[in-house]
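Q: Two folds, back to back.
A: First:
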Amino acid sequence: MKKQTPLLLAPLLLACGFYFAGPVSAATLVSQYTFAGNANDSVGGKNLTVTGSVGYGTQTINGVSMNVVTISEPSNSNYLNFSGNLGASLGSVSVSFWANGTATGATYKDIVGVANGSGVGFKLETFNDFSSNDYVAVYGMGSFLTGAPPGTSVGSEGAWHLYTFTVNGTAATLYCDGVAVGTATTNGNNTLITQLRVGNGLDSTGRGWLGSVADLKIYSGALTAGEVAAAYAAVPEPTTYGMLGAGALAGAALVRRRRRRGVIAR
């Protein structure tokens, strides 16, 4: 008789597939800077150039050991920069990174910024509430954002936070630790991004930032709220993967035993 396809493992394998693969995203990762002792782009080859000096190290972030780059701002001459085709446009982009800063007084300090060749774009920066607390907000360059800039009351100093800014057409959203904390409207500019800077301003000088950045990612396309939340969620424990693997092996062994006993029809 013609062999019938065993169905016993189908639900388990399907579940494992969804678990590991995750949802399909409309956003494509075009650059990732893990800062593993350098400022290289491990995805798109768009390596950052270091101006002045920066430091590299390892810290525990959200329960995971990660590489970091540390920028010292007093001279306003220490930062990282890329000029060229970043592979994303202003009207459809997501920028995500971990940051941990030190309060810098009543002033503005730029963490990460992107722009086109004419200086139109946006930047995530800290601003001071005049009580020694630096908060993070997004500001437009070249009138890219209209209305009040999205911001968060979560400070950048003394603790690691995941900041993500997405632009989908004229709708822009800032997330902190996986939660939306502000929205804004863009002017509809959808030109190619050709500038990326970490640790100082693209449109002004004297805004050097003091702190560390980890796992900077640039996406072509807007991440969904669910994808942003998932990125902040803790990495599954190794035992989770072990349980899934053990379940698959146990199911396979059961199929073999039943075949030998003639349980599965042939």
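A: Second:
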Amino acid sequence: MAAHRHHHLPDLFRFFLVFIAALAIGFGVPSFWLWIGSMYQGAAGETRLTTEGAVIVFAGVILSYLLLMIAGATLSARQRTGLRQPDHWNRSMRDEPRRRAPLTPTEAAFVAGAILATVAHLIWLFTFAGSPLPVG
């Protein structure tokens, strides 16, 4: 029974690592770049969003995501062992269908981050955003 319990410990640990990475990806990266953009605008004396501030935030988020995906792909490639499997389009039709490969931790973190960010945005939209329409 103890061996069975230890088998799930790495799965639970991996789940928490993916969850923390998803929070960092979904909320940490955009929040960091919003803070950088606000520092830039505050130093310029602006009190509203400028084009330069928006470009800094947007480009920073996109660049950060690209760098994180490259880093995750590099780590995943180092963990893979064995021969390279042929692509699905390059296999014989007689080959048996293969099971779909599980998500890598990087893929799981990005998927979970997108889901968490979407759910948080929907909660904000329907509960806290208020109506943009004029009242009475």
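Q: And?
A: The CA atoms of residues 22 and 28 lie 9 Å apart.
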